[in-house]
Amino acid sequence: MKRKASKTTTPALSSDQDRIAAFLSFSPEVQRAYLRAMQSIDPAALHYLENHPEASKVLKQLQLDEVLSEAFKGLKK
After folding, report:
1. Which residues have C-beta within 8 Å of that of residue 58, sequence separation ≥ 6?
2. What integer is the mean pLDDT of 37-52?
3. Less Cβ crowding at N or C end of the chain, within 10 Å?
4. Strand (E) or helix (H) holding 11
């Protein structure tokens, strides 16, 4: 007798508020990885983070870190 596998469903992150809440629940390392991945796939998809005070701070900090990292690489050469 075969058992039918039950489907596991995850709740969809349908609203920007859901996406922001999920993003803010990530650890800082995961937030950075998520932002890097989304920026390489579709930077315009991050607009919902720019409009949220707390999430926009994380986004701006990542952008600043990347600029500083590139600047330091240039100085080492």
Report:
1. 23, 24, 28, 31, 35, 49
2. 87
3. N
4. none
CA distance 39 to 58: 14
User: What is the average per-residue pLDDT within 35-58?
Assistant: 88
The answer for residues whose C-beta is within 8 angstroms of residue 32's C-beta and 6 or more apart is: 62, 65
pLDDT of res. 15:
83
Give start and end residues of each alpha helix (H) in the chain: 16-25, 28-41, 47-50, 53-76
The number of angstroms, rounded, from the C-alpha of 17 to the middle of its chain's C-alpha atoms is 14
Q: What is the CA radius of gyration of the chain?
A: 18
| Residue pointed to by tokens 């995961």 | 30
